[in-house]
Amino acid sequence: MCNLPFTIYYLLFTIYHLPLKALNEIRKIYFVGIGGIGMSALARYFLGRGVEVFGYDRTETELTKTLASEGMQVHYEDDANYIPRDIDLAVFTPAIPKDHAELNWLFAHNYEVLKRSQVLGIISRGMRTIAISGTHGKTTTSALTAHLLRTGGVDCTAFLGGISVDLGSNFAQGKSDWAVIEADEYDRSFLQLRPDIAAIMSVDPDHLDIYGDEKEFIQNFSIFIRKIKLGGVYFQKADLQLPELSPVWFEEKRPEDWNLGTIERHTFGIGEGEFNAKNIRVADGRYVFDLSADGVEIKDIRMATPGRHNIENALAASAAVLRAGVGVDAIKKGLESFRGIKRRFEFIINKKNLVYIDDYAHHPTELKSAIEAARGLFPGKKLTVIFQPHLFSRTRDFQEGFAEALDRADEVLLLDIYPAREKPMEGITSKLIFDKMKSSRKELIAKPDVLKALSDKKIEVLMTMGAGDIDTLVGQIKKMFSGKV
User: 309: pLDDT confidence band, cut at 50, 70 and 90?
Assistant: First the structure.
C-alpha cells in the first residue's frame, strides 16, 4: 500500500481538484456564523473573488461591522427569510447549535452546505499550502509564516485565526499559488486539509468534549500528517511524541486520501532539533537569538514578540518558508519586523511605571507561557492577572493546570466562566480553579466589578487573559489608567 502506482495518485489529484472548479463558479455565498474569526477570513476570500457575500451572526461586533463596511450583508436574527434564495453555497461553523433555524432550513431545502473546514480543504488541494497546527502557537506561527513569505517576495494568501497587526486583518489575498492556513484541531477540522508543508507546534490535550481522551486527541495529529501531499514535508517540535499508525489502521478507515508515500519529517526546538535556536538573551526589551537550520546560520535575530514560545514559533515558520524558497536575509528581516497578533501578548500600555498586556490565553500551557514571558521582560515587577475561563468542559478537564499556572502571578482576579457554545454543567464554576490555587492573593469577581477592584490596587504589570468576552474590558481599563501613565 505504501507504493501506490502513479496513475492512482494522479487520479486522486484530479478528484481533489474537481470541487475547486465548483468554487470558481460560485457567485453568491451565505455564511452561518460569519463573525467567527475563521469564518470571516473565508468570507473575505470569497469577497475578494468578486462573490456576493451574505451572513448571519448572533451579535454585532467590531469585526462584523468591518465585514459590513467591506461590502458584505450581515444580519443578527436567526431567521431564514434573510437568506437569499439563489445562493450557490452555504458555509457553517461547528460552533453553530444543531437547533439553529437557518442552518436547518438550508439542509431541509437541499442547498449545498459545507463546513468551513471542508471549504478550506478544497482550497488547500488547489494551492501550494503551508498548514500550521497545534494546541498552542498556530495563530502566531501562521501569521509569522505569511509575513515571512511576503517579506521574501512570495505574495501568499493567508487564512488566520487572529488579527495580524502587520496585515490589519485575519486574511490576506495573494496573487501567487501559495496559501498559509491555520490548521484548527477543533471538530477535527484540520483533517480536511491537504498541505504541501505542515508544522506541528504542540499537542497538549484540548477539546476533550470532541475527542474523548488524550490518546485520541494526540492520535489525530498523526492522522493529520498522513493528509500531507505526496512528497510533502512537516516540521514538529523536537520534544513531541506522536504515535505511529499501522497499515491495518489505514485499511480499516478506508478514505481515499491517505498519503502512504514519502513524507519528510524534520524537528525544531530551542537548543535541539535540526532547526534550533541558541545563544538566547534579552536585550533592550527584545529576545535575541541565533538560528541554525539546514547548515544555515542566522545571527542576532531580534524578535519584537516576547517569550521563548515565540522563538519556537519563529523556528517553525522559518523552517517552512525556507522549504518554500525564501532566503535567509528575508527571513531575518521578517522575524525582526513581525509585530504579532492582536490579543497575543498585546501591549495596551507599555510605560515605565505601568504595563498592561492583553492575551487570548485560554489553556493552562498558554497561561503559563504568557506569564513566564511577562516575568522575563519585567523581572521584579508585581504581576496582576485577570483571567476569564473559557468553556465549562475545559474548566472541568484542566482545573488543576489552570490553578498551577495562575499561581505564578502575584495576584489574580478570577472571573466567571465564559460558556461560548456550551450549556452550563452542574458543579462546574470558576471556584473549582480558585479552590485549587495555593496563592492567598486571589479573588473571585464578577466582570462588571473589575474596574472598581483595579482602582483600589497598586498595579505595576497587568494582564487580562481569556478567549471569551474579557476583551470588552480592554478599552475601559486603558481609559481608566490613561491618566496615571
Answer: confident
